[in-house]
Every structure is written in structure tokens, then in C-alpha cells.
Amino acid sequence: RKEVEQDPGPFNVPEGATVAFNCTYSNSASQSFFWYRQDCRKEPKLLMSVYSSGNEDGRFTAQLNRASQYISLLIRDSKLSDSATYLCVVNTGTASKLTFGTGTRLQVTL
Amino acid sequence: EAGVTQFPSHSVIEKGQTVTLRCDPISGHDNLYWYRRVMGKEIKFLLHFVKESKQDESGMPNNRFLAERTGGTYSTLKVQPAELEDSGVYFCASSSRGVAGVETQYFGPGTRLLVL
Fold first, then answer.
1. A78-104: per-residue pLDDT in tens?
2. CB A96 to CB B48 under 8 A?
3. Residues 6+ apart with CB under 8 A from A31
4. Residue B45: its chain A contacts at CB < 8 A?
């Protein structure tokens, strides 16, 4: 079983749609949680950290459920520029290796 | 502020040859990480330096891989001799401690290695 599981997609949605991605992690000792965005043939870039209380950054909302070991990302009012692969990432320490999911591919269309 | 840089951007070598990848972290970042993505798989951790010391090298595949960070600045990752399964994208990341101790790792553009 992979340490971080994501639906690989692709998710094909029209502009303006709301889309949600889910992720589960197996290591209950995980301490920090992130969503990274990766464009084709580019490096991963931090989209947002995920906190237990939930957090929002513009059109993006992230949620963490520690009891279920589940992380989500909601994108509202999708833009063409949101097309990318979204990586669910966890880390078990304050300065330690990141464990990545395989990523969920999003394609936003006109 | 300059980001993480990596050199070369691409490398094509034959099986059995040696390749050295270089990473320059963000200035002042003590933590430096190497990751690798092979085709069709997730990005996987290779090792972690704190300054010039190896903190965690549990992800290194075998002894054909040697990483160094002399002086605690840039790092090199040497593969010798390269095998076909070493092909992939090698990412370097660096970090410093952020708010409430939460660390953010910033990634370089990667080196695409193809072993023929």
C-alpha cells in the first residue's frame, strides 16, 4: 500500500466549475501536510499547507481530518490556468523528507 | 531572491558511464534534499543534508549513488556507474524553518537523466 494515495484522474472540468481532490495517508505519525502544484515538465511548487482547522486561500480550500487520515483540496471557480497536477504531500517531522502521492491531474476546459 | 538551481537541466548518457548532478540551494537554507521521479511513479526521497552533514540517506537506492555537500553550500549527486533504471527526473529542494516550525521545501527545476 502506498503511503499517500490519490486518484490520478484526469479530472476534466469546464471553466467556472468546482472540483475537489482527496488524498489519504497511512502514517499516523505524519505531522505536516501540503498540496503542491506541478505543471508539465516543471518542478513542484507549494500551493498551500493544510491545517486541522482547515484553511482557505482565495479560490482554494484545504481540509485535514487526522482521525480519518484524509486530506482534501477544493478549487472553486476553476480557471484554465489551474490545469496542472496536484500533489498531496505529507511529512513526519519538522525538517524531514516529504512523502508524495502520485498526483491528481486536472484539466480545465473552455 | 534566487531560487534553487540545478545543473544540468538534461543529461543523456550510456549505461556504465558516470554523471554528476549539481544543486545550489536558496542562500541561507541549511536543509537540502534530493528527490527522484522515475516514469510513472511518485516523487521519492533520496537523502537530506543539514549543512554539510547527511541527516537521512534512507532513500538512496544503492552504493552507485554518492551525494556530497562540502562546505554546506551546493550539493552534488554522482551516479557511477549509471544503469538504465536510474533514468528519471532528479529534483533538489531546500528549506528553512518557517512559522510555528513548519518547514517549506522549495524545489529546483530538476535534472532529466536518460540512461541508454
1. 999 999 999 999 987 656 889 999 999
2. yes
3. A91, A92, A93, A94
4. 97-99
